[in-house]
Amino acid sequence: MVEITVKDFAIKIGCDIKRLLNYLKSAGLEHKKADKLLTEKDKQILLNYLNYQQGIKKITLIRKINSKIHMENKLIDIQIRKKKTFFKINTEKIERNKKKKDTKSLEESKNIHTFKIPKKNIIREINIYESNSILYLANKMAIKAAELIKVLLTMGVLVTINQKIDKDTACLVVEEIGHKPKIINTNELEKKLLKTKFSDGKKIKRCPIITVMGHVDHGKTSLIDCIRKTKLVNKELGGITQYIDVYHVNLDKGKNITIIDTPGHKAFINMRALGVKFTDIVILVVSADDGIKPQTIEAIEHAKYEKLPVIVAINKIDKIGTDIDRVRNDLSKYGLIPEEWGGDTPFIPVSAKTGIGIDVLLESVSLISELVDLTTVLDSPGKGVVIESRRDIGKGPVAKILVLNGTLNKGDIVLCGLNYGRVRAIINEVGKTVDKVGPSIPVEIIGLNGIPESGEKVNVVSDEKKAREIVNVRYIKYIKKKQKNNINKNLFKKINTINIVLKVDVQGTLKALRNSIKELSNEKIIVNIISASVGNINENDVKLAITSKAILIGFNVHVVSEAREIIERENIKLFYYNIIYKLIDGIKEIIKNKLKPKKLEKIIGIAEVRDIFKYNKKNGIIVGCIVKKGSVLRKKQIRIIRNKFVVYKGELDSLRRFKEDVNEVSKGMEFGICIRNHNDVKIGDTIESWDKLI
């Protein structure tokens, strides 16, 4: 072990003796004098103190080295001083920096794209609708829209990014890119979107919906007036109902009913069909003095088709000469057997004028209502049907609806045909605004984005996005149907059509004639049989011929007197035949006349040349004329006729009357004209003003 004094150690390390003694004292060593000896252990303790205890960042050691330089004839002694600085290592900082570096490396490694290119292409299943946008298909196939457009271009389809393609083209391009197309049925998609979870809440009894039907002028509206104690019939034009309407009536003992009033005229068959589609009971009104009529039979057929219970109200029993038994007998032929005869149809004699039998009628309605399931869950989303709709200047689209199930609330999103919207207001029958409405109640709603058609179903949906999706699906179907109809319309516009109402004597002849007539159609004309039946030509046949612009053909039949009057008054074409081949030849002649060239122009006016005046040296002339028939118009074509030959056909340069430019001169007026690039006009020539028809 080498020992050294404090003084020598201080000199060796180049440190002041006093400073070294202070370090030794601080290190816990008892070296107070410079001549004290330092052992190796003491040096280690001092070094540890300097490194760790005091936290000195660095320590500098200076050493002196004596050396000699040999020069010519000289030897020079030199002293070299070497200085070394030792820095204390900060392990905490090193650890902190290392940790920070490791964290940064970890974060960077996460951001590195580790996706490996698959060996096989990913094949996706793409939903294809009736109409598909370029952006939709590109997103589903995970490619750029520009790339999809290029593929379509190679297939011969030129589109832009904002256009849509049909399902067939979409399927082809999806398969071309390497994916699987899946055609989505729009009907199934609509059902899926409309699927609503109904509440399992308590079922309640709703009031019955009654539809009043019958022939025109049999007293349907008067009967409703008697029940409601109103005077609706006085407000109707011509005393007949021309609109379908619905009323909620409060009866005695807290009972309520909803009544639908339908028109009875023949022209309103669609409205009557609509009325029975959402009703519970049909009240068939038959006039006791008039019996059953065509619309009575039609109402019975509607009720049977919808399998609805029928109550027969035999009206106008207060009149003299009524025969109730005759009405019972006639209706029994159509399956309505009175209860008195062992059937299940109530026959109630009533008088809407005096009120006789109304209480019995309402009691019968109440009894049948008990037998029919009229329950609904009040807490479920509202469902209904559109009765009528209109556009109000202040309110916008207004729809009168009948709620059938659930509850309709203010603020609900409703879907109605091709329209949807949030219900901004609900107006009841008396004009008051309400916050909600239950089943079997008619109300008006405001908030739809358009005017729905009568008969459209009303559904409450969860949100506006779903409503918009359903409307888009329906609109695609609507456009497709409209395009198909337009194609058919354009087809029939290009091809002439002959409509025929055919009446024959026996069924066998009817079948033979029908087939023979259809064979007469060709590429230029279509022979269309509107109606073909057995029997004499009656009033209904003539009216059908008028509405369809058809010709009447009778084979071994005659015309009844009422129909003959209409034929003569309306100048309907009527042809009689008793031999089949003559009938066929007759239709061929009609076809031949139909295919003759049509008149393509219309004569507006005729004038006569009375005088001719020169107005310049270049043979410019003014033709003085008088209008003989019609009018001469400035902007129309003219032709000059001389000795029944046309000598000029062109336009007017000017049209004047008393030195003033005018646009038209009428019969008996004198006027002057200048004719463009034509001076060959003579007194007595006829000038025709004409216009093109097509």
From TrEMBL:
The reply on keyword Nucleotide-binding is yes
Q: Record-annotated residues binding GTP?
A: 214-221, 261-265, 315-318
Q: Which gene encodes it?
A: infB
Q: Name one GO molecular function term.
A: GTP binding
The record's annotation in SUPFAM superfamilies points to: Initiation factor IF2/eIF5b, domain 3, P-loop containing nucleoside triphosphate hydrolases, Putative DNA-binding domain, Translation proteins
Q: Which organism is it from?
A: Candidatus Portiera aleyrodidarum TV
HAMAP family documented for this protein: IF_2_B (MF_00100_B)
Primary location group? cytoplasm
Cellular component terms (Gene Ontology):
cytosol
Keyword terms, alphabetized = Cytoplasm, GTP-binding, Initiation factor, Nucleotide-binding, Protein biosynthesis
Question: What is this protein for, i.e. what is its function?
Answer: One of the essential components for the initiation of protein synthesis. Protects formylmethionyl-tRNA from spontaneous hydrolysis and promotes its binding to the 30S ribosomal subunits. Also involved in the hydrolysis of GTP during the formation of the 70S ribosomal complex.
Against PROSITE patterns, the record matches this protein to: G_TR_2
Domain annotation Tr-type G: ranges: 205-375
- Source organism, top-level taxon: Bacteria
Keyword check for Protein biosynthesis, yes or no: yes
Stated family = Belongs to the TRAFAC class translation factor GTPase superfamily. Classic translation factor GTPase family. IF-2 subfamily.
User: Any idea where this protein resides?
Assistant: Cytoplasm
Q: What is this protein called?
A: Translation initiation factor IF-2
Pfam annotation, one family: EF-G_D2
